[in-house]
Amino acid sequence: xxxxxxxxxDDSEESDAVLDHALDLAEAADARVRLLSVVDExxxxxxxxxxxxxxxxxxxxxxxxEAGVATAEERGVxxxxxxxxxxxxxxxxxxxxxxxxxxxxTHGRRGVDKLLLGSVSEKVVRASPTPVLLVPVGRRGE
Length: 142
Hints:
alpha/beta
C-alpha cells in the first residue's frame, strides 16, 4: 500500500513519537522512510548575532535527521533524510509529492494557542497532494 513514507521532524521530544509511529507503519508495509527537517526561512534574514542561533538550528536539524535514520536502520527500515531551508509547510508539501503518505505530528493546540502559533500540520493536511496521517503528541486532554 505505502512504499514511500515522508516523516517531517523537528528536534522536539514529540517527534520521537511521530518517528516511532512512522517506523511501525514502514515495518508493516515494507516501506522506505524519508525524514525531513526544515530550518525555517524566518531565520535566514539575520545579523551576525543571529548567525549563531541559525547555526544551532541547522545543527539540531541535522542531528535530528541523523538520529532518525539511525533509529530506522536499527529497526531494519530503509531510510534517508534531508535538511532543507524554507517555510516548513511549503517544504513538506514539496517533498510530499514524492511520497505515498505523510506522517506528521500535531501538538493538539486549541483555541487561542492555535490562532497565535499557527499549525504546520493543518496547512499540510489542507494542501497535501498525498494522504496525511496525523499523530497526536504533546498537550492532550486540556
